[in-house]
Amino acid sequence: MSNPPPPPPPRDAFALLMCHPSNTKKKLQSSFPDPKTPTEDTLKVEAVNEDVPHAKKPKTLTVEVAKEVEKEVMDEKIALLVKKGLEFKPKSAAFWKDGESIPFVFLARAFDLASQNSSRIVIIDILCNVFRTVIATTPSDLVSFIYLSVGKIYPPYDGIELGIGDTTIIKSLSEAYGKSVVEVRKELKTVGDLGLVAKASRSSQSTVSKPAPLTVAKVLDAFRTLAKFSGQLSQERKNKCVKALLVAASDCEPQYIIRILQSKMRIGFSEQTVLAALGQAVAYSESPLAPPIEEAVKIINHVYSVHPNYDSIVSALLTDGVLKLPDTCPFVLGVPISPMLAKPTKGVSEILKQFQNRDLTCEYKYDGERAQIHYFGDGSVQIFSRNSVRNTEKFPDVIQSVQR
């Protein structure tokens, strides 16, 4: 029997490939199918994924679901703001951690909730619970909440206003949301509210990357910066500032950014409503050492009439409480007191009826302008209008008369 032939010498991978490159290529291609062509195994996996609720979904779908869940949670928390008194637990409405800057959307959603109610009592409850939530979580943000709630950025006697017109706002809105000025004006004519136009424009626009969320403190700081722009390029700088806010805004935030800029809140409450809500919030927050709610409201109203400065009042409230407020925020020179304003009546008979035949004193109402004059120890003078606006330069002759 003859011996079997010896096995062929081993050949390396490179040699094998070079012998039949075309055949090898075909074999390799058959071993690794085209990823674009679904195989039987792929179809099975996809079928399983459809049946399993926790299977991985596309990223875009996951983001949309997360947004929807986030909105539902926020809706539930905002709805709690209508609760009354001790039924409301301040931290239950918060969707941020203690000490964190509070999202502007919380205030905007509270405004939205208040605008849906015509009852002053319900509106005060909502604002009161907003302030209680702020005091319980991030008290340093309270003064920003107060200023934006009353549609102001500084005390009136500082004479600093936003000073921005609808033309600039419309331009900022159109650039932020990719619309033409003509389109924005057309929508404004239909809706009648530039805030609603901004809200609708934002909701219909998608963004590639989401900017950092706006906070209440950030919005107030932006408004204060905007108000101080002056000079040749001031309108362009204001335009960029407003545009940046609108790009970063979400939900109903654009609506109230625009309304604050226009000084047209359209919510249905006044500064007196905000003061009443603040008084109640402080009374509940200081419980059980706080005075009765009515007394707390009365104290805050009185102090604001002689010291209309929210920075000072809020700081004193958080430090020393409402009972000491008349001592910590007294009348000071340079801060105008609120004048007592008369209420018009239809005739003398109505006045007599209101006083119920009691003795009364009358005086003539002279034509002219009311002025509140503050005379300082160094001889300087400051004059304020009935609306607490400093207008000293308007009366040089009065200044000379006072300084004699």
Automatic annotation (TrEMBL):
Show where the ATP-dependent DNA ligase family profile domain sits.
Answer: 339-403
**Domain DNA ligase ATP-dependent N-terminal, residue spans:** 103-278
Q: Where would one find the signal peptide in this protein?
A: none
Q: Name one Pfam family in it.
A: DNA_ligase_A_M
Q: What are the record keywords, sorted?
A: ATP-binding, Cell cycle, Cell division, DNA damage, DNA recombination, DNA repair, Ligase, Nucleotide-binding
Question: One biological-process term from Gene Ontology?
Answer: DNA repair
GO MF term list: ATP binding; DNA binding; DNA ligase (ATP) activity
Q: Name one GO cellular component term.
A: mitochondrion
Q: InterPro entries, per this entry?
A: ATP-dep_DNA_ligase (IPR050191), DNA_ligase_ATP-dep_cent (IPR012310), DNA_ligase_ATP-dep_CS (IPR016059), DNA_ligase_ATP-dep_N (IPR012308), DNA_ligase_N_sf (IPR036599)
Q: Which family does it belong to?
A: Belongs to the ATP-dependent DNA ligase family.
Record-given protein name: DNA ligase
The organism of origin for this protein: Papaver nudicaule (Iceland poppy)
